[in-house]
Amino acid sequence: MPEPNLQRATIRVPATSANLGPGFDCIGMALDLWNETVVTKGDPSITISGIGADSLPHDATNMIAASASRTFRDLGVDPTPLAFDCHNRIPLARGLGSSSAAALTGIAAAFTFAGLDVADAQTQHQIFTIAADIEGHPDNVAPAVFGGCQIGIHVGTENPGKDWIISRVGTAEELKAVVFIPDFTMATEEARGVLSAEIPRSDAVFNVGRAAMLVHALETRQWELLRHATDDRLHQPQRIEKLFPRFRPIARGALDAGAHGVLLSGAGPSVLALATDRFMTICYEMSENARKAQVNGEALILDIAQQGMQITTEL
């Protein structure tokens, strides 16, 4: 139940990998790498430690604060003055959902301090809807809210709160993500700008088949299917060719080391390999091939986060 005299809340939001293989703008996965923000009722402020401490804004233009303000307006309630103390572990502009995590943190804070029951399923769907409206697509937002692997589509019902439909894809505990995170950034706007406005029918058919195969492979644990089910023609080839051609040796290292499938995480440049064993070997080979290709970065072995955002409150 909501707390009428709430003074403090802690909000944790996981990283996400969107555009999952052929699932452009509609399939995403939550990863066990979290931003944590302590929100306190009081004089408005933003403090940041960890990633982005020196580069993110510390005022009302910060996405967390801006999303909270917008949500208070959407809810039609007077805004509560809030202080945000952020500890960030999700890399910025690397295709791991840092902007979605920030927006969701602000939205969840507004719902929490507006006195709404954020444990309620309907309220969580409202939070998701506002976040998806801000983002414009659900593939980062849905897994960040609900955890796991999620499919999201916009159905255009013109019925507020029911424009978005989401469905969870089962993922086995043995499946992990090995992620190589380059030390350079790739803005989503830039990555979207290299995509063609039109695609051949053959490419559409290619992606429909592989998106269906991806969901089937994850649900049925037929890991051998992932090598082809993570292919696509809508976004990865263009982004790799024009913005990150050195993706290829890193991906090859992962596959040669035993990964089942490899893809560009989000809009890039992070490279995500799906695997059920040999994690350290995959991690090493991705890093070694990156070094040979003169790409600096770090590799992480991450579980699929089966739970999404977590909110705890204190009176």
Structural class: alpha+beta
Mean pLDDT: 95
Query: Could you say what the CATH architecture of the largest domain is?
Result: 2-Layer Sandwich
Main sheet overview: 7 strands, mixed
Terminal-residue CA separation: 13 Å
**SS elements, strand count:** 11
Q: Please provide the ordered H/E string of secondary-structure elements.
A: EEEHEHHHEEEHHHHHEEHEE
List low-pLDDT spans: none
Query: Can you tell me the CATH class of the largest domain?
Result: Alpha Beta
Q: Strand fraction band? A: 15-25%
Can you tell me the CATH topology of the largest domain?
Ribosomal Protein S5, domain 2
Helix content range: 25-40%
Radius of gyration: 19 Å
Number of helices, where a helix is a run of at least 4 consecutive DSSP H or I residues: 10
Number of domains: 2
Shape: globular
What does this structure look like?
This protein is globular. Strands 1, 2, 3, 4, 5, 6 and 11 form a 7-stranded mixed sheet that branches. It folds into 2 domains: 8-169 and 305-314, Ribosomal Protein S5, domain 2 (2-Layer Sandwich); 176-303, Alpha-Beta Plaits (2-Layer Sandwich), CATH 3.30.70.890. It starts with 7 loop residues before the first strand and ends with a strand. Helices cover 36% and strands 25% of the residues. It has helices at 63-75, 98-113, 121-135, 141-146, 188-193, 201-220, 226-229, 236-243, 247-256, 279-292; strands at residues 8-17, 27-41, 45-50, 82-88, 149-154, 164-169, 176-182, 261-264, 271-275, 297-303, 310-314. The chain is α+β, with helices and mostly antiparallel strands and 315 residues long. The longest helix is centred in the last third of the chain and has 20 residues, at 201-220. The chain is built from 10 helices and 11 strands.
